[in-house]
Amino acid sequence: MERGRFSLAHEIGHWQMHRGKVLFCRSEDIGGDRGSTTVERVANRYAAGLLMPAYLFQEFCGHRAITFALAEELATAFRVSRTAAAIQLVDRADRPLMLVCHSRVKREWFHKSSIWPDELWPSDELDTRSRAFDIQFSNKPESRTMLRVAADAWYGRAAASRYEIRESIVRGGNGTTLSLIEIVKPAGRR
Q1: Where are the alpha helices (DSSP H) in 18-148?
Q2: 190 exposure class (CB count in 10 Å sphere: 0-12, 13-18, 19+)
Q3: Cα 20 off chain centre by
Q4: What is the pLDDT of residues 90-134, one digit of tens each?
Q5: C-alpha–C-alpha distance, residues 190 and 53, integer Å
Q6: Domain spans of the chain?
């Protein structure tokens, strides 16, 4: 049901934003930025804004912690998927957030907030120190709240040592893991 509503809103976005253009949407183009073309990203953002208007979304969120628990409440309230709600949380956040999707073999896609540091890109494979690894490869419970983890478990670059991060992890569809990652602060700062 939620996927159908988002798909319809996505197509309305094309109708409003791309009239006169010949477009062919694939199902994987609807809902995220995972390699989609610019016109598909525009239609996705239009759909998100139509189904989750900013003023209502912000009012619902208030000053609550951004976690998958909140994403699930938003998904229910706005009748969208948990992933769509999580992407909106990332887009509307006043702090650096990233949503990352991994399968057992690779990083499938990621979506970052506009204030996320450009020097931090998620690793292609899950690190054994992340909770996402435990959830992906074992029967460990999901982590709907934010818990601290070493930044270099996610970002295998020297820059990772300058940050402290938290993660909230759930199982996604088709054997994937969704990770909501927040930079708490640059490492060493109080």
Answers
A1: 38-51, 54-61, 68-78, 82-92, 131-137
A2: exposed
A3: 31
A4: 998 889 999 999 999 999 989 999 999 988 889 899 999 889 999
A5: 35
A6: 2-92, 97-186
